[in-house]
Write a structure and sequence with these properties.
about 270 residues; 2-enoyl-CoA Hydratase, Chain A, domain 1; three-stranded mixed sheet; 12 helices; 10 strands; about 50% helix; about 20% strand; ClpP/crotonase-like_dom_sf; Enoyl-CoA_hydra_C; Enoyl-CoA hydratase/carnithine racemase; lyase
């Protein structure tokens, strides 16, 4: 296991761990239910880039510090300084948008593993990932209207892509909390498990994804992003990645494994 501290601040940090084919980004600010400071928002793109560049990493997992909340949103206690007016807010919003975009544009599969609180910007981070697995006692909310602030439009679009325009408006308009069962029903999360089974479920999912062809996964992710009009969508890139699959060693390995009636061993080349 390699461990890198991507950012440290008095009130929290973003951590990066690599365990086999799993690259994990940790939101670590337990004293504030893993609220994200400006320094933590700024560290997320670097953390994603580190794992994207790691050849042995097959799946990127975003989660809260061990046993704690996923993320209770932005750290409001610093808003009087870092988000006090239009000028400072513009800089803060740019850091928010860059964090969401880094996850959204990652070519490797991304999985949010959610327990306890997933609030505000935490919902935005989860929505920017490909897949969301949550504990069945998790709670979700987007309380922007309680504070009078706005979200980056691309982050709003991520949420609309998951749950549709009217449900997204309802969450933003009312700032209401919803339970995990409701989040699953409306499509905000993809799978619910008991809290004590969450880590095992996440590891099992990552293992299943990691066993398959990464070039295929990258290609289909690009195609889906383009098809749904995601901010990360790029039809040219999607076609390029699809063509690369047919030139890859993995494609030859997949055909050979089929002929030989065995499990394939993919390398991402």
């Amino acid at each position: 296991m390699r461990k890198t501290r991507a950012a440290t601040a008095p009130e929290g940090r973003i951590t990066v761990d690599v365990i086999g084919g799993l690259g994990r980004i940790g939101i670590d600010n337990p004293g504030r239910h893993n609220a994200l400071s400006l320094a933590m928002w700024q560290a997320i793109p670097e953390a994603v880039a580190t794992l994207e560049a790691a050849e042995d990493v097959r799946v990127v997992v975003l989660t809260g510090s061990e046993g704690g909340a996923f993320a209770s949103g932005a750290d409001i206690t610093e808003f009087d300084v870092v988000r006090a007016d239009a000028a400072t807010s513009a800089s803060y919003e740019a850091a928010n948008a860059a964090a969401f975009a880094a996850l959204r544009r990652a070519e490797k599969p991304t999985v949010a593993v959610i327990r306890r609180f997933c609030m505000g910007g935490g919902v935005g981070l989860a929505a920017a990932c490909d897949i969301r697995i949550a504990a069945d006692d998790a709670v979700f909310a987007i309380p922007a209207a309680r504070l009078g602030l706005a979200y980056p439009p691309e982050a709003v679009a991520d949420i609309v892509a998951l749950i549709g325009p009217s449900r997204a408006k309802d969450l933003f308009y009312t700032a209401k909390r919803i339970d995990a069962a409701t989040a699953l029903r409306i499509g905000l999360v993809d799978e619910l498990v008991r809290d004590d089974e969450l880590e095992a479920a996440a590891v099992a999912y990552v293992a299943r994804v990691s066993a398959l062809a990464p070039m295929t996964q990258r290609a289909v992710k690009a195609a889906i992003d383009a098809a749904v009009g995601s901010a990360a969508g790029d039809w040219g890139r999607a076609r390029e990645l699809a063509e690369l699959c047919f030139e890859s060693q993995d494609y030859a390995e997949g055909r050979a494994a089929f002929r030989e009636k065995r499990e394939p061993v993919f390398t991402g080349r």
